[in-house]
Amino acid sequence: MKLAVVGATGLVGQEVLKVLEERNFPFTDLYLVASPKSVGQKISYKGKEYSIKGLEEVCNLIPDVAIFSAGGGTSLEWAPKFAEKGTIVIDNSSAWRMDPTKKLVVPEINGKEIKEENKIIANPNCSTIQMVLALAPLHARYKLKRVVVSTYQSVTGTGKDAVQQMMDERAGINGAKVYPHPIDMNALPHIDVFQDNGYTKEEMKMVNETRKILGDENIGVTSTTVRVPTIGGHSEAINAEFYTDFDLAEVKNILSNTAGVIVQDDPKNNIYPMPLYSKGKDEVFVGRLRRDESQPNTLNMWVVADNLRKGAATNAVQIAEYILEHRLVNA
Ligand code: 2RA
């Protein structure tokens, strides 16, 4: 099995390498790809040095699987070229997510949708992944009617320069500028670009991707996404209305028995999920479970996950593991 990691020097690419190492992902060859200015530089993986290569060179080496975390433009141009040669591309960008011919996969929810002919598989947006992982088992039991979500998203979701901007501001240095406003000691209700309907692209990702992954176009979803000066992960306040009523103890039990979800819900002892403690973890943490007392069949919860892990790298590696386990790759 020949594996390529495209965008190997970025925050997500670096996390992909960590996850591959931790999970002892089985490959015979590893090709690391980054922008032309990084070609020839070395990256160490499990004590071995790998030289960074260019896209064309690695495309011609025909890896069995390529995990792309290099932005939408690179994916739009190069994923089809890799796929044409027979490589399965697992793509972290938003380029292919809403393409009706492409699967949008969270393996625990809809891994079964992946078929041998799917050569480009889309990894959902980070804020969507953690939300749907918590909602999917509740949707299966009580059927979702409407979701209202507000996010508190880590600067790591923007990339290295955004982390630098926050750190520079904290140190009083006039340095990196990624956001249109200061981010430290601030909250920006602005993630990705604004659309004609007044929502940001990030907000519409949460609407459209949720419906596609859960396979139900009738679920109402509305979202406000906010960047906050945190690093460990994204947090979400989710208000979920169901068609049927639920028992809170049963909700807790369902979530506690959901693969990839950890319930941290003991408010009397100040136990609830926090981004500081989700950093480097693969699970999605759920807490503050309570009834919305303003209307029937409605649940409030607080969901936190490391956006670079389950929100990106871990989910992508899990897709690669799924296609290996189910022999959907000719390696
Ligand atoms: C963010 N959702 O946090 C993005 C990263 N894919 O900005």
TrEMBL record:
Q: Which residues form the active site?
A: 126, 234
GO molecular-function term, one example from the UniProt record: NADP binding
Q: Which InterPro entries match?
A: Asp_semialdehyde_DH, Asp_semialdehyde_DH_beta, NAD(P)-bd_dom_sf, Semialdehyde_DH_NAD-bd, Semialdhyde_DH_dimer_dom
- The residues the record assigns to binding NADP(+) are 9-12, 37-38, 307
According to its UniProt entry, one GO biological process term is: isoleucine biosynthetic process
**Under which EC number(s) is this enzyme classified?**
1.2.1.11
Q: Which CDD domains match?
A: ASADH_C_bac_euk_like (cd18131), VcASADH2_like_N (cd02316)
Class in the EC hierarchy, top level: oxidoreductase
Entry keywords, A to Z: Amino-acid biosynthesis, Diaminopimelate biosynthesis, Lysine biosynthesis, Methionine biosynthesis, NADP, Oxidoreductase, Threonine biosynthesis
Q: Is this entry keyworded Isomerase?
A: no
What Pfam family is a match, any one? Answer: Semialdhyde_dhC
Start and end residues of each Semialdehyde dehydrogenase NAD-binding domain: 2-117
Known catalytic reactions? L-aspartate 4-semialdehyde + phosphate + NADP(+) = 4-phospho-L-aspartate + NADPH + H(+)
Residues recorded as binding phosphate, renumbered to this chain, are 97
The positions annotated for binding substrate are 153, 227
- Which pathway, metabolic or otherwise, does it act in? Amino-acid biosynthesis; L-threonine biosynthesis; L-threonine from L-aspartate: step 2/5; Amino-acid biosynthesis; L-methionine biosynthesis via de novo pathway; L-homoserine from L-aspartate: step 2/3; Amino-acid biosynthesis; L-lysine biosynthesis via DAP pathway; (S)-tetrahydrodipicolinate from L-aspartate: step 2/4
Question: By its UniProt entry, which PANTHER family does this protein fall under?
Answer: ASPARTATE-SEMIALDEHYDE DEHYDROGENASE, DEHYDROGENASE, PUTATIVE-RELATED
Purpose = Catalyzes the NADPH-dependent formation of L-aspartate-semialdehyde (L-ASA) by the reductive dephosphorylation of L-aspartyl-4-phosphate.
Outline the subunit composition.
Homodimer.
Q: Which family does it belong to?
A: Belongs to the aspartate-semialdehyde dehydrogenase family.
Tell me what this protein is called: Aspartate-semialdehyde dehydrogenase
Question: Native species of this protein?
Answer: Chryseotalea sanaruensis
